[in-house]
TrEMBL record:
Keywords: Transferase
InterPro entries for this protein: Acyl_CoA_acyltransferase, GNAT_dom
CDD domains, A to Z: NAT_SF (cd04301)
Designated name of the protein: N-acetyltransferase
GO molecular function, one term: acyltransferase activity, transferring groups other than amino-acyl groups
Positions of the N-acetyltransferase domain: 3-166
Organism: Rhizobium vallis
Amino acid sequence: MSFLLRDASQVDIPAVTEIYRDSVLNGVASYEIVAPSEAEMMQRFAAIVGQQYPYIAATDADGKLLGYAYASAFRTRPAYRWMVEDSIYLAPEARGRGIGKALMTELIDRCTALGFRQMVAVIGGASPASIALHLKAGFVEVGLMKGTGYKHDRWLDTMLMQRALGEGMSTDPDPSIYPGTLFAG
């Protein structure tokens, strides 16, 4: 399956909403129980890109959305501004075809170029496929939280994974340039 990566835009939100809806209703990556509306997904998109975080779309040759990935704040307190949390969602027919890996690689590259120093993954349901994807992308396991969610009539664990970006913590960041200006006092 060939695909193209590009910046996501507002026109992608209906398809983003459907992909996420499938994940909410049938999967365990998201701990939401009720799928958000298209209007809510538009608000989430605007908040993420409004803070200059990357939001990437993967499409087929005809422009159909196959998946998407974005980075967002792990926490909004100022000391966390150098760390991002990744999120990747794929349409069911796009899974297992290298699209997740391509989205992850592009997301890491973009976050590194923006000056972020750490990326964290909060993997709902401790999904083996998601853990494997993150391990291949250079993440390490930093913690397993047991029984953090209850969905689909079962208790779910959450895996925390992390990887350094760019210079990581080997040098001090410049607080006067992005992302140092995020959430500043």
